[in-house]
Task: inverse folding
């Protein structure tokens, strides 16, 4: 097995950064996120050891805002200029299984069912993912319950196994092998034990859940569950599998650009129509849509769940809305109550 | 940014010119758009397109007709974008992208009697199928059109409604307004009430419905009362949309997206989905 001594991580990142934009877990004050590794970043900010970053790495393939095209008008004339999809090489270093798995969810949404999203595709095709096996889940982690193997990050090109002073380095795709070949001078070669199965404090049973939810749209339990939610939307921004976006315009004089940006199904404006009609007018309708989307609708449409058990929403919800308790409550209620 | 960008981003519109504007009602105008190379894309009846006034915004509209040399959009003034669109003049260049959605099942309707039930601006999407049926008249049986609006002034497509369509073979047009009005000798009733009075036979008939959600919901109840089966009833829905290609998330009803899987659903499909529209 290839190995990477932890003392050589910065050298490897520097090497990778010569040819690609390298995203690493970084701690900056109270915020941690996948940021670009550069000469300006200190190794002290690297957060490889701590659990999930606050912000997921979805922004590497789906930036928070992204210019799509510019336009210019003159009298009645108008002209549009496409902004070229960004197609530089990118590497994500140190993503855990919950986050790599949610890239698979995003792939389904953006690359299948009739249309390919040009911007997402350009970024995704040039992306190499170095995943990191996760043997010590946090108290709110529940990825294993959502069908994610924390030791084998699905969708990663290389998997790192923590073995104390060094990482085991295992390429699992051709892309990962190619990257490994480029880094040979930094890598060692000896057998290391792979970490054994992680112990989870948080577990939830989802067997049959999407099917049960299909019969629960009109269930009164949704109002009860939504009572604590303030529709602040933080869960949707932090969720690695939430992908909804808005398209907006910025106009200055005769020119401007149209951009897209993350949106949230928690906000009434999300579905508010100009004529006044809003199919999800109330808080509990928006709440219900979010959880059904994660646990039923995405499953029906794409055959995978929209939640990968990263626990970010559980930790950061200001009012203690907890998807695990919600699933437990949904399992426990009688489906025939309407 | 590059002039020879080849990304073919489906979210980028092409530029077309507004070549005619018809004032249908005090708050509905029909815009004819085309480009130097002809129509920007072909649409089937019931399909959608995203229309943008570049500095203001973009919105999804049904294409109310694809003529040989232009597309027609009948647009009601209800918000920021449509307000601005109502202020433009002939010659204005705007953006369009599409076509989006499934459109009406024109082949499945062949050989059937067609019953159209519309309310307000809901006649705009129906019009694309009505005109298609007239264009291919021999393929369809009898045609009945029931249309209602708040007042006489609010009736869209008046020339077609009162002159062109009633003159077509084996065609009946029923028009109604919500409240009595001086000078109007026609029917005064809400659409579902009038529908039950007319009580069209379900035999070999397909009913196509579009209007405000509340009208659709009441008409669906009437259809059931009159003995129409779920397979015979088709509606076209509307929801806020941004991308039009099933990615941005907001136009879902359950696991279906109106922009991609709709906007046209028959009642069999619709009954499998949550009633959230």
Result:
């Amino acid at each position: 097995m290839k190995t990477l001594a932890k003392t050589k991580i910065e050298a490897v990142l520097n090497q990778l950064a010569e040819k690609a934009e390298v995203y690493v877990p970084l701690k900056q004050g109270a915020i941690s996120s996948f940021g670009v590794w550069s000469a300006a970043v200190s190794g002290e900010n690297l957060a490889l050891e701590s659990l999930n970053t606050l912000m997921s790495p979805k922004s590497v393939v789906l930036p928070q805002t992204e210019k799509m095209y510019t336009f210019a008008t003159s009298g009645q004339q108008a002209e549009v200029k496409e902004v070229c999809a960004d197609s530089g090489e990118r590497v994500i270093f140190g993503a855990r299984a919950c986050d790599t798995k949610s890239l698979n969810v995003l792939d389904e949404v953006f690359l299948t069912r009739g249309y390919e999203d040009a911007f997402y595709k350009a970024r995704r095709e040039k992306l190499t993912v170095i995943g990191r096996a996760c043997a010590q889940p946090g108290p709110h982690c529940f990825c294993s319950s959502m069908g994610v193997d924390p030791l084998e990050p699905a969708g990663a090109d290389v998997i790192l196994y923590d073995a104390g002073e060094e990482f085991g380095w295992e390429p699992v795709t051709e892309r990962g092998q190619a990257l490994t070949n480029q880094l040979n001078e930094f890598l060692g070669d000896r057998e290391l034990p792979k970490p054994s199965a992680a112990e989870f404090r948080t577990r939830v049973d989802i067997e049959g859940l999407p099917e049960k939810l299909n019969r629960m749209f009109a269930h009164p339990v949704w109002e009860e569950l939504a009572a604590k939610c303030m529709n602040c939307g933080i869960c949707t921004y932090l969720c690695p599998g939430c992908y909804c976006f808005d398209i907006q315009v910025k106009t200055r004089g005769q020119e401007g650009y149209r951009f897209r940006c993350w949106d949230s199904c928690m906000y009434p404006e999300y579905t508010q129509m100009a004529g006044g009609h809003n199919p999800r007018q109330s808080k509990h309708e928006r709440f219900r849509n979010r959880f059904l989307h994660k646990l039923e609708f995405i499953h029906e449409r794409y055959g995978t769940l929209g939640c990968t058990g990263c626990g970010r929403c559980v930790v950061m919800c200001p009012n203690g809305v907890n998807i695990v308790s919600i699933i437990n409550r949904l399992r426990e209620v009688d489906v025939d109550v309407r | 940014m590059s002039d020879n960008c080849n990304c073919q981003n489906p979210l980028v519109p092409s530029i077309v010119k507004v070549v005619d504007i018809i004032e249908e009602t005090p708050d509905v105008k029909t815009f004819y758009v085309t480009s130097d190379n002809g129509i920007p894309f072909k649409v089937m009846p019931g399909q959608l397109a995203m229309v943008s006034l570049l500095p203001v915004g973009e919105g999804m509209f049904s294409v109310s007709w694809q003529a040989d040399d232009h597309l027609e959009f009948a647009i009601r003034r209800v918000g920021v974008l449509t307000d601005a669109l109502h202020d433009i003049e002939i010659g204005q260049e705007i953006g369009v992208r599409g076509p989006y959605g499934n459109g009406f099942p024109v082949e499945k309707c062949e050989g059937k009697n067609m019953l159209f039930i519309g309310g307000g601006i809901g006649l705009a999407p129906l019009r694309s199928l009505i005109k298609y049926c007239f264009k291919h008249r021999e393929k369809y049986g009898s045609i009945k059109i029931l249309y209602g609006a708040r007042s006489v002034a609010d009736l869209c497509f008046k020339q077609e409604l009162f002159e062109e369509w009633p003159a077509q073979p084996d065609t009946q047009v029923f028009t109604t307004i919500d409240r009595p009005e001086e000078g109007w000798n026609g029917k005064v009733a809400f659409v579902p009430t009038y529908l039950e009075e007319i009580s069209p036979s379900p035999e070999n008939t397909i009913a196509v419905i579009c209007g405000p959600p509340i009208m659709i919901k009441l008409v669906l109840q009437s259809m059931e009362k009159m003995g129409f089966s779920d397979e015979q009833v088709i509606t076209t829905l509307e929801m806020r949309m941004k991308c039009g290609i099933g990615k941005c998330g907001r136009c879902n009803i359950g696991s279906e997206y109106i922009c991609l899987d709709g906007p046209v659903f028959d009642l069999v499909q619709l009954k499998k989905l949550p009633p959230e529209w």
Q: What stands out?
A: The mean pLDDT of chain A is 95.
